[in-house]
């Protein structure tokens, strides 16, 4: 299966309107506060550091470029061609490569695995934005990319994030400036139960090797100047526990 045209169109419209500058998008926080923190949790479980790394749902590539300094080959993938245009434009040094990918579409993921072989995968905040029927196919796609030797680091908003987002969206002055475009394009985060994420991984044949809780840092601030952070859970998984 593949994602709905509505979902794909929402992301394409969002990224066509998004500014080029780093930090202008709600979740586009500095890598030192995002991928850098995640990498410290991920690396102890990466058994084959020489494998390519796929940044799944890379958006404008801010985290992709950071990861490209730390892995031998990094491929940023996204469902939105406009997002990849931003990523390529920002990657002036050509640190990574970028590919259009619907990771819920079996044939597309198989093609990328045939090109790369087994890969490590980084995915931040994608699953909760998917349509419910696309979530298991997406995780199945991750399992295909990981193969026998790779590992995946997955971080998703927890159930506790939903009331925080609702409060932000319904504030007296309207949603924060960087959250408003997300809502306007119909990309309101869905509700994924905390238990369902490891269940999806298990159904895809992956073993959870580690997990924990961590605030998901955004690039937005409250009216009083404090950075908005959303409750999230992270997991590392692979084909075996070995």
UniProtKB/TrEMBL annotation:
It holds the Pfam family Methyltransf_25. It comes from Streptomyces fagopyri. One of its GO terms (molecular function) is methyltransferase activity. Keywords: Methyltransferase, Transferase. SUPFAM superfamilies: S-adenosyl-L-methionine-dependent methyltransferases (SSF53335). This is Methyltransferase domain-containing protein. GO terms for biological process: methylation. Residues 54-147 form the Methyltransferase domain. Gene3D superfamilies: Vaccinia Virus protein VP39 (3.40.50.150).
């Amino acid at each position: 299966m593949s994602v709905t045209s509505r979902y794909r169109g929402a992301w394409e419209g969002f990224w066509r309107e998004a500014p080029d500058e780093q930090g202008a998008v709600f979740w586009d926080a500095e890598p030192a506060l995002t991928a850098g923190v995640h990498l410290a949790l991920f690396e102890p479980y990466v058994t084959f550091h020489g494998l390519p790394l796929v940044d799944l749902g890379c958006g404008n590539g801010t985290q992709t470029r950071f990861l490209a300094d730390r892995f031998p080959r990094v491929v940023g993938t996204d469902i939105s061609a406009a997002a990849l245009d931003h990523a390529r434009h920002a990657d002036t040094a050509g640190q990574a490569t970028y590919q259009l990918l619907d990771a819920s579409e079996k044939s597309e993921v198989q093609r990328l695995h045939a090109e790369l072989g087994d890969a490590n995968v980084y995915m931040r905040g994608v699953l909760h934005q998917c349509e419910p029927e696309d979530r298991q196919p997406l995780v199945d796609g991750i399992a295909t990319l990981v193969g026998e030797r790779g590992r995946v680091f997955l971080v998703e908003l927890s159930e506790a994030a939903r009331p925080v987002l609702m409060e932000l969206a319904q504030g007296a002055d309207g949603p924060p400036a960087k959250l408003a475009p997300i809502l306007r394009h119909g990309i309101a985060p869905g509700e994924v139960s905390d238990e369902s994420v490891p269940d999806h991984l298990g159904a895809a044949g992956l073993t959870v090797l580690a997990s924990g809780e961590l605030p998901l840092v955004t690039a937005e601030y409250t009216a009083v100047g404090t950075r908005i952070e959303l409750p999230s859970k992270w997991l590392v998984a692979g084909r075996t526990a070995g």
